[in-house]
Amino acid sequence: MDILTWTYILVGLSFSVYIGIAMYTTASSTKDFYIAGGGISPVANGMATAADWMSAASFLSMAGIISFAGYDGSVYLMGWTGGYVLLALLLAPYLRKFGKFTVPDFVGERYYSQTARVVAVICALFVSFTYVAGQMRGVGIVFARFLNTSIEMGVIAGMAIVFLYAVGGGMKGITYTQVAQYCILIFAYLVPAIFISLQLTGNPIPQLGLGSEVIGGGYLLDKLDGLNKELGFQSYTEGSKPMLDTLAITIALMVGTAGLPHVIVRFFTVPKVKDARSSAGLALIFIALLYTTAPAIAAFGKYNLIQSVGNTSGIDYKNSPEWIKTWEKTGLIAWTDKNNDGKIQYRNGKAFEGEPKLIKNPDIKGKYNELIYKNKPDLQSKNEIYVDNDIMVLAAPEIAKLPNWVVALVAAGGLAAALSTAAGLLLVISAAISHDLLKKNLMPNISEKKELLYARLSAAVAVIVAGYFGINPPGFVSQVVAFAFGLAASSFFPAIIMGIFSKRMNREGAISGMIAGLSVTLVYIIFFKAKLFGIPVPDAWITPNHYFLGISPEGFGTIGMLVNFGVAWLVSSFTPAPPQEVQEMVENIRYPKGAKEASGGH
Q1: How far is CA 520 from the centre of its chain?
Q2: Taking CA 134 as the corner, what is the angle to CA 132 and CA 135, rounded to the nearest 5 degrees?
Q3: Strand spans (E) along 218-327
Q4: Distance of alpha carbon 481 from its chain centroid, rounded?
Q5: By the 8 A CB rule, do 129 and 470 touch?
Q6: How far apart are CA 203 and CA 304, in angstroms?
Q7: Close Cβ partners of 216 (under 8 Å, ≥ 6 residues apart)
Q8: CA dihedral 99, 103, 105, 106 (to 10 degrees)
């Protein structure tokens, strides 16, 4: 069977499973809708957490960015992995013991302030909408390539699926759907990795294949370094980013992970604090299966890509591999013949001025002509082919000429990864509006039935907004997600950490810190990424030469976090301490009952 038929079969089966679970697990109360009734087992919650956390950025884009950036791309791997460890050790058990539905709920109660709750709601919406844009974009990319639709139609299809199980089932439906999605995405990620590792190195374990000799002689990474240098790229195993920027991005991704509301809320769904610790540990094991495989997929994909299109003399476009022409129809690969020799020249540099987009040829109704692009060729560079970061995992099986069912399996896995995280984010948005904004602020007397109705309406509206951002995203998937992590790092993380470990931190400090941290980070990102947001800023103003201490927008969340901590500490030092009952509540979060007495009261 061809790839399209296999894709319809595998994606259709996976979607049937998701819809079936959604119909079986409809939420009947707000507790079901927000935290799945608080009765999820540690194993199921570990799988659901892994699926929730491993988004389209992890599945589709992380290996892609490592593939093209080499050593510099490892910041995503280190930051996200370290962040999950930080979350599991420092936050999850304490937040579960506190026992609230949402992060804004924790912030509002801990800082005894409705204003703090509203600020946390705003932060949650900023982070979640920025993050969900990347997920919906990932859905659109998969649909565009494998189901012969436009990216826009792919996003709309993804919206419809998420709507069915997120709006109806809430956290209860999402949790069990995410268990199924984890099983699908991890199988879909490992199978092609094992195939390609065997094909290139003869070793069936991708993690070992990365450091092995390729069949025919020479170590894979040494050969990749040599091929990169031949084509004018930097060495694959050496970095070019300033060390401070690398550190800042890693920290921003790490603490941003620990402040992501859709991951934190997962630890409210288990019965006991002990279960929160167990599910956090299990999730780390489930996540490690993908994260230790990603560098191998990245190196295999780049090696095979260069072998396909990257020899120094170029290859004739007419005789180029079929996968190039197939992916051209999506606009995610594009070729422009700058020297009119009919050959693809793959070199370091930009092929086009900006990302190329296919435009309709008015002479061929209803069809796309892959040789007509919206953006002009970049004549300052000799590179003639544009390859989007986000397709490397999806295209790797085709480049390696794997069986069609493996190619289709990756499509199903990519959709599972994107949809699982999108659903979790949409629930955070829904809960922030219905529970924290309406129930806890504007409409405190509404019934549980009414609150559940508003939660579903909020989720429905959030799906539509998420779809818009998926069709009009401010960057490629990993970049968009990096912005979300920066915003989480600069807003939520300091408020949560200080809320757990500092009895002296008061509402004035927390509110001021969140506003200051989020504001400086958001302004910095929007300014230096102005063109992605359609803001006209002169090019001379937004070059890396003007970065603060050389720190890129992806890493500025670290500075925002420090601003948050600093402002919060300063303001709390000059304002009254929290009430005694709040201080006792903070102490109770950290220590089990009877711990003080057992240790002599110290």
Answers
A1: 22
A2: 65
A3: 315-316
A4: 5
A5: no
A6: 16
A7: none
A8: 60
- Of 410, 431, 454, 449, the C-alpha closest to 174 is 431
Burial (CB count within 10 angstroms: exposed 0-12, middle 13-18, buried 19+), residue 537: middle
Domains of the chain: 3-302+402-590 (1.20.1730.10), 311-345+349-382 (no CATH)
CA distance 353 to 350: 7
Beta bridge partners of 333: 387
Summarize pLDDT for 48-67 with one digit per residue, the tens: 888 877 777 778 778 888 88
Q: Please state the rounded mean pLDDT for residues 314-318.
A: 82
Rounded to 10 degrees, the C-alpha dihedral 441/442/444/449 comes to -120
Q: Whole-angstrom Cα distance, residue 137 to residue 331?
A: 14
Of 407, 414, 547, nearest in space to 138 by CA: 414
Read off the pLDDT of residues 501-560 as tens digits, 9 standing for 90 and up. 888 899 899 889 988 998 998 888 888 776 655 566 666 666 777 888 888 888 888 999
Distance, in Å, from the CA atom of 104 to the CA atom of 354, rounded to the nearest integer, reads 39
| pLDDT tens-place string over residues 89-130 | 777 778 777 766 677 778 888 888 888 888 778 777 777 777
Contact 396, 387 (CB under 8 A): no
CB 327, CB 411: distance < 8 Å: no
pLDDT tens for 564-600 read 999 999 999 999 988 988 888 888 877 655 444 434 4
Quote the pLDDT of residue 194: 94
DSSP-assigned states of every residue in 298-343: HHHHHHHHHHHH--TT-EEGGGS-HHHHHHHTTTSEEE--TTSSSE
Smallest Cα–Cα separation from 434: which of 412, 418, 413, 450?
450
The percentage of residues in the chain with a pLDDT greater than 70, rounded to a whole number, is 84
pLDDT in tens, 448-468: 777 778 777 887 888 888 788
Residue count of the chain: 602
Alpha-carbon distance values, 520 to 237, 422, 526, 535, 548 (Å): 34, 26, 10, 18, 12
Would you state the pLDDT for residue 599?
A: 42
Torsion region of 37: left, alpha or beta (phi above 0 gives left; psi -120 to 50 gives alpha)? left
The candidate with the shortest Cα–Cα distance to 288, out of 474, 428, 82, 90, is: 82
Reading phi first (left if > 0) and then psi (alpha if -120 to 50, else beta), residue 342 is in left
Q: What is the pLDDT of residue 516?
A: 92
Residue closest to 583 by CA, chosen among 499, 503, 528: 503
Beta strand 315-316 with 343-344 is: antiparallel
Residue whose structure tokens are 């994606």: 11
* Element (DSSP H or E) covering residue 253: helix 243-258
The residues with which 335 forms a beta bridge, in sequence order, are 385
| Ramachandran quadrant class, 575 (left: phi over 0; alpha: psi -120 to 50; beta: rest) | beta
What is the CA 194 to chain-centroid distance, rounded? 24
pTM: 0.80
Token pair, residue 252, equals 């921003």
